[in-house]
Amino acid sequence: MRLTERLPIPGRTIVSVFFVPCGGPARLWPGTWGGSGFFSGGTPIKSNRVTRVNRMIRIPRVLVVDEEGEQLGVLETREALAIAEERGLDLVEVAPTARPPVCRIMDYGKFKYEQSKKARKARQASHTVKVKTVQFRPKTDDHDYEFKKKHIVSFLEAGNKVKVVMRFRGREFSHIDLALVFLENLVDEIEEYGTPESRPQREGRQISFIMAPKKKKEV
What we know:
Blueprint: E1 3-7, E2 15-19, E3 27-28, E4 61-65, E5 71-76, H1 77-86, E6 90-95, E7 102-106, H2 108-127, E8 131-136, H3 142-157, E9 161-167, H4 176-189, E10 194-196, E11 201-202, E12 206-213
Parallel strand pairs: 4-7, 8-9
Antiparallel strand pairs: 1-2, 2-3, 4-5, 6-7, 9-12, 10-12, 11-12
């Protein structure tokens, strides 16, 4: 006859095991860890660590840091919790693997909100691409042209987009075909650093287009 018991394993889920009275090998219930994971020598099942707060902290003694960053020393957990409650704050386990674990007195709700806000700003910043503007005139001389071209290259190398603008005055607009040739030559000279996102667009008495930086090849 086979008996079934539930054995607690420290730090892990309770596992159901068959015991065979004749001394045969114990076998796992199907669907627990099966043929992989902890018992088979495979990859252990990973679990997301939950931050223990207030009465979730079960260890008897902890090193306590208060809301001002001052160490209060190693205290009984119930004493540390009483101090936090007296101050209207929470006791949060911040270093569970330390011996003894380190707990901090803080406003945990406010802390989580600030962390969430920082993470959101970091995500937004990582996706923000600035658009720089560089303006030319049909009669831009060689020195000014080279100076502005270097600026465009530096902006593209920094990962920014560049809005290239050709501005016209008076009758200059009647020579728009020459201006387009001018811009095409510019694009050819900086093609190593960026590519135009679209053809030049007319905006009042100017034409413009956006240059986007080329993605760097991974080495």
